[in-house]
Amino acid sequence: MKAVGLYKYLPIEHEESLVEVNVERPVPHQKDLLVKIEAISINPVDVKVRAPKDKQEDTPKILGWDASGIVEEVGPDCTLFKPGDTVYYSGSITRPGTYSEYHLVDERIVGSKPKSLTFAESAALPLTAITAWEGLFDRLGIDLNKKNENEQKSILIIGGAGGVGSVAVQLAKLAGLKVIATASRKESKQWVQELGADEVINHHQSFLPQIQEIGLDHVDYIFCLNNTDQHWDNMGEAIVPQGRICSIVENNEPLDLNVLKSKSVTFVWEFMFTRSMYQTKDLVKQHDLLTKLSQLIDEDKVRTTLTECFSPLNAVNLRKAHNLVETGRMIGKVVVKNG
């Protein structure tokens, strides 16, 4: 089957950074689905894995995690899907990726594609939606079903216009929270407001004075989606005593946990590949949340975050998409689709 992969880790401008290859079509076993890929989206993790380094692959490394498509075959232990079903998902970082005609994925991390969305619109969502959902509801402990209680609380979403932020703003608002998103450009500020943010502040300035200007003493929750090192002290100032902070961005320098000690603040990481990487007992929760997300989308309560789309799915367009993500100025998500 056709695929796009790499042998060398090169700058994206290099023609050999992503190349078209032929690889053997995989066969589903156990709980695997073989999915015919219709569209994929590119995330910062794709760029990080592909980033230039002194390493070379003997066989092509296939990147990509987000995908939407049609189930072609199912493994003998599958019970959730059948051939012909339309699905969307973000696969496992430990397995070959989605830059290919067909792809194997464990059905327990797959959801039924939203009926109201195209394949391209659906492909924009899984990785970011899973990250946002787990960050808000599993890690920060917010209850989506307690809207009345949540209306008394606030959340600061750092990096509200990016892929994860674009979903997190919508879900936090749906849960009833007062949503404060950070954005520094006119177009990104407009984007988060359209998604439902109540207030917008600038992440290049101190958080607490800006939060106090909009009438709050502190915020109850913080979801950090951009540069944990840079924002660490700012988050410590802005969080309420006994509040909760979740970050998805790895630190480059040691974090001083004493910043949070006097306030008894909870700090937690979110990494959406944890369940698939470690085959946790609750792996099927990603199937459940993608199923619930599809329902919310079809009820017009959550919208796709697709803002850029290239076609067809080939090395040239994947290099374009990687280049766009590498700028760090991406609003929403970029998708590459077939046909």
UniProtKB/TrEMBL annotation:
Q: Does the keyword Zinc apply?
A: yes
Q: Which InterPro entries match?
A: ADH-like_C, ADH-like_N, ADH_Zn_typ-1, Chloroplast_QOR, ER, GroES-like_sf, NAD(P)-bd_dom_sf
PANTHER family with a match to the protein in the record? ZINC-TYPE ALCOHOL DEHYDROGENASE-LIKE PROTEIN C16A3.02C
Keyword Oxidoreductase assigned: yes
Q: Give the family from UniProt.
A: Belongs to the zinc-containing alcohol dehydrogenase family. Quinone oxidoreductase subfamily.
UniProt-listed Gene3D superfamilies: Medium-chain alcohol dehydrogenases, catalytic domain, NAD(P)-binding Rossmann-like Domain
One short Pfam family name for this protein?
ADH_N
Protein species of origin: Gracilibacillus caseinilyticus
User: Which part of the chain is the Enoyl reductase (ER) domain?
Assistant: 14-336
Keywords (A to Z) from UniProt: Metal-binding, Oxidoreductase, Zinc
Q: What is the name of this protein?
A: Zinc-type alcohol dehydrogenase-like protein
Specify the domain of life of the species encoding this protein: Bacteria
SUPFAM superfamilies xrefs: GroES-like, NAD(P)-binding Rossmann-fold domains
